[in-house]
Structure to design on (118 residues):
């Protein structure tokens, strides 16, 4: 049985994918705890003005699950607003980024699933 409490996990300050500012970030569940093609589950807080820079992955799907706050999400050159409750799907090989241009922190989970190109 694997149980982790993300609220009790120490956060580290990281500049993620050459974005702006420092994000508070922790790996909650690494690949080795899953019996499925999941790469990781992370807990991340983007302070006001912080961002993940534009980046690509390989053959996977990455989910940004927004729990608090608002900002803008970019995927393959299209930018849209995002807010608490949104689940953003980064497609395999897609260029994506997120920026907190709202008033408070953006609290999110990041989950990467291996896509296995169809």
């Amino acid at each position: 049985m694997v149980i982790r409490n993300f609220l009790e996990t120490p956060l580290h300050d990281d500049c993620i994918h050459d974005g702006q500012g420092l994000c508070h970030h922790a790996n909650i569940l690494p690949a080795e705890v899953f019996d499925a093609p999941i790469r990781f589950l992370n807990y991340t807080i983007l302070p006001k003005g912080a961002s993940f820079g534009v980046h690509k992955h390989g053959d996977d799907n990455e989910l940004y699950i927004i729990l608090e706050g608002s900002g803008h999400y970019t995927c393959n050159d299209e930018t849209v607003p995002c807010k608490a409750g949104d689940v953003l799907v980064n497609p395999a090989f897609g260029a994506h980024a997120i920026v907190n241009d709202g008033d408070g922190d953006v609290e999110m989970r990041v989950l990467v699933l291996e896509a296995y190109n169809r």
